[in-house]
Amino acid sequence: MTIFTLHRISPWSFFLLLCLLFPTSEPSTTPKPIFLPLQTMKIPSINLPKPPSKLQFSYNYSLVVPLKVGTPPQEIAMVVDTGSELSYLECLPSQSKLTIFNPNASSSYYAVPCDSDTCKNKSRDLPSPTTCDSNKLCHFAQTYADGSTCEGNVATDTVSLGGLAVPNLVFGCATTSHSSTKGDGRTTTGLMGMNRGSLSFISQMGFGRFSYCISDRTSSGVLVIGDSDPVFVRALNYTPLVGISLPLPYFDRVAYSVQLIGIRVAMKVLPLPKSAFVPDHTGAGQTMVDSGTQFTVLLGPVYTALKNEYLQQTKGLLKVYEDPSYVFQGAFDLCYRSEDGAIPSLPPVVLMFTGAEMVISGERLLYRVPELAGVSCFTFGNSDLVPVEAFIIGHHHQQNMWVEYDLERSRLGFGPARCDLAGQRLAQGLGV
Fold first, then answer.
1. Active-site position among 146, 157, 252, 290
2. Where is the signal peptide (predicted)?
3. Helices in 231-348 by DSSP H: which ranges?
4. What is the rounded (10 degree) CA torsion for 51, 89, 174, 226?
5. Which of 81, 146, 252, 333 is catalytic?
């Protein structure tokens, strides 16, 4: 038994003792995290004429979250794109059949003038500079890797999500658009730009971190804006974000760029020099993590080495689809045929980064082609066929991973997770 001896103490000392035993918490200045359901939504596939100058890259699925914009709020759905800066909404004429945002119905909508700081200075990171239209309003025009284009006026309005209303958020109000993969049946209203640029959605929200978990089921993922503590993830592996001080023509300085240092198929590392993964003097060859791209594309020499090694290791397991003229989605030319649709156990592909590895295994390695029965294609493509001058890691290879974008510490973390469980907890109001 322990014996305590009592001594007489002053009131001030007693107060200090109480503070030590029962510390009071100061109000936190860190905003509470926002949880949004993240859907993997199928894009309707239709044939539209493509401008001859645009890229021929297409997707089957996008990541979509619900938001409310305007006063009174209008329900919208937006594609989450960590490869873009300026968010935009479809603000097409009222006779359009598309799901649109109606700026005329919002009392808080404001069209940004072209002489404003937002138009002249804050838009400097955009791939295409803003201009001034005939009404002296700030005009934007953007082109995406799948050949889609949109243009219209830069505007502000109130955005509501997760119980938080953010006034004067800057976005593009698109009045003209062309899509290579979506038509009158589209179910999304626009795009949520989430890169590191000053006009991106996450930068304007003022959060230093966001995460997502992409389920292999269509409607059971989660997007977390702010800090999170995913208890169902064992641990996250972190790799630093890469940046450069001087602008280079082919380096996207506001992308989530990391350093790929090698690729391993099962236990064999591809025999490539480290220089094959390092950006050159023009900036070409950076590695970007992009939720707006479906699959992963690699620079030509690296893709060729991976394709040859995978053919070698899957010999006898898979039957190659022998049609040299067929290229899935314009970039994926290694396909296999399976009469019964069964896919055997395959060697994993491991993306090796500075300080971390991303393991691609199982069903994420092959994708069943909708238009060809019994044909599945390798989910790594050749960037020379797109063409793009970068390694791009798409959202298909991020399925069932908790992916954390830590802007405060300039790093990216990822680790295996049960993304369907995350979505269920969100739906039950339990958070993550």
1. 290
2. 1-27
3. 300-313
4. -90
5. 81
Intervals of the chain under pLDDT 70? 1-31, 43-61, 93-99, 123, 145-147, 178-188, 218-219, 230-232, 340-341, 423, 426-432
Q: Residue 328 has which token pair?
A: 């899935």
**Structure tokens belonging to residue 109:** 């909508």
Q: Using CB atoms within 10 Å of the CB of residue 91, give its burial: 0 to 12 exposed, 13 to 18 middle, 19+ buried.
A: buried
Please report, as a single letter, which amino acid is at residue 154: V
Does the bond joining 72 to the residue before it have cis omega, within 30 degrees of 0? yes
Told to judge if 81 belongs to the known catalytic residues of this protein, a careful annotator would answer yes
Residues whose CB falls within 8 Å of the CB of residue 51, separated by 6 or more in sequence, listed in order: 147, 149, 178
The token pair that represents 333 in the structure block: 């030319």
For the chain, give percent helix, strand, coil, nearest 5. 15, 35, 50
Q: Find residue 401's DSSP bridge partners.
A: 416
Number of Cα atoms under 13 Å in the Cβ half of residue 399: 25
pTM (2 d.p.): 0.85
Provide the edge-to-edge strand list for the sheet that holds 268-269.
268-269, 260-265, 349-353, 356-360
Cα distance between residue 20 and residue 63, in whole Å: 48
Lay out the sheet containing 286-289: strands in order across: 257-258, 286-289, 390-393, 296-298, 380-382
- Which residue ranges form the domains of the chain, and what is each CATH number? 34-225 (2.40.70.10), 237-416 (2.40.70.10)
Give the C-alpha separation, 132 to 420, whole Å. Answer: 46
